[in-house]
């Protein structure tokens, strides 16, 4: 609504349009009467609104609703073809991509296998992203021009001052100063790169364990360790995007995370919290057994809970969240038994006592969060009728 004057008919129409579109996104097909009831609009205004949105290709009729006196009422829904988005999740062994329509329905997917530390990956990062997007577009009949938004989740974070990826030395191909421009060129659209743990928190916020909480911390316990901090419903990023990089946090019993980028690229981050509770650390604690098998051992589970509680206590003392969500392979393998032990260990370590939950997101929470972010961007652009 750039350039529009607040309070003018044009702005009010746009606000009503957006309110109706958001209702159709969250509640599914609705009649004109029901849209009027939920928005407070009169029947003539709701009718004009729907006619306008249908003409713009944003909504469409989808059958009718009977069961009441008089003619059946026409049902309206978001037109899935109004816009499409792509979401990608980047890991040490490959890139996962999905394409979805504006309603959030996934219409295509692809995985590209690629070892993040192979020498040739350094020089073809953009091409791998393009390959993943093209693969997801595959049989959909869509092209790059049909994508309204593209969001990529990676470890680390883009420094808004330099445009470079920080805190992810194990992804050497993603450290170019021209990365965003290179990706935009091959995808054909501007690209947003977001921290993977932040995206996992967005997934929890919208459809997971944190749906009812505006102040929470998500602790990501996987091959790498990190956190996302949400305060007042908003992600805390920090000056360089490094808020929540708790893998490097010094703790008793852990070597300090000092040294070169090569040291920090090791699975144990060369020291810090990550060297105590990452999946490689859990496996080392259990003599090399796989993570799930290791955490089936009560003695290993007790030690991991003690270590985890010590690190979480430091965060809780500073942030005082309502909730801490445990996510990642270690949290999933430990499950409720790990949660109970961490909760018990936190007693006396920090005065605040937040709720503690295990993530309940189905599938990849990073990809889910990337899709949620891409949809939010696309809807803001597509649903702006001013």
Supply database-style keywords.
alpha/beta; five-stranded mixed beta sheet; 13 helices; globular
What report would you give on this structure?
- By secondary structure, the protein is of the alpha/beta class.
- Helices cover 39% and strands 21% of the residues.
- It has 13 helices and 15 strands.
- The chain has helices at 9-27, 32-39, 43-55, 125-137, 179-187, 196-207, 261-264, 274-277, 279-285, 291-294, 298-319, 329-346, 365-382; strands at residues 30-31, 59-65, 73-78, 84-91, 94-101, 106-113, 147-154, 157-158, 165-166, 191-195, 216-221, 225-231, 234-235, 323-327, 355-358.
- The protein has a 5-stranded mixed beta sheet with strand order 6-5-4-7-10, with helices on both faces. The chain has a 5-stranded mixed beta sheet with strand order 13-12-11-14-15, with helices on both faces. The chain has a 3-stranded antiparallel beta sheet with strand order 1-3-2.
- Strand 4 (84-91) and strand 5 (94-101) form a beta hairpin.
- Helix 2 crosses helix 3 (43-55), helix 4 (125-137) runs parallel beside helix 5 (179-187) and helix 6 (196-207) crosses helix 13 (365-382).
- It is globular.
- The model is unreliable at 260-269 (pLDDT under 50).
Topology:
Layout: H1 9-27, E1 30-31, H2 32-39, H3 43-55, E2 59-65, E3 73-78, E4 84-91, E5 94-101, E6 106-113, H4 125-137, E7 147-154, E8 157-158, E9 165-166, H5 179-187, E10 191-195, H6 196-207, E11 216-221, E12 225-231, E13 234-235, H7 261-264, H8 274-277, H9 279-285, H10 291-294, H11 298-319, E14 323-327, H12 329-346, E15 355-358, H13 365-382
Parallel strand pairs: 4-7, 7-10, 11-14, 14-15
Antiparallel strand pairs: 1-3, 2-3, 4-5, 5-6, 8-9, 11-12, 12-13
Helix pairs in contact: 2-3, 4-5, 6-13, 11-12
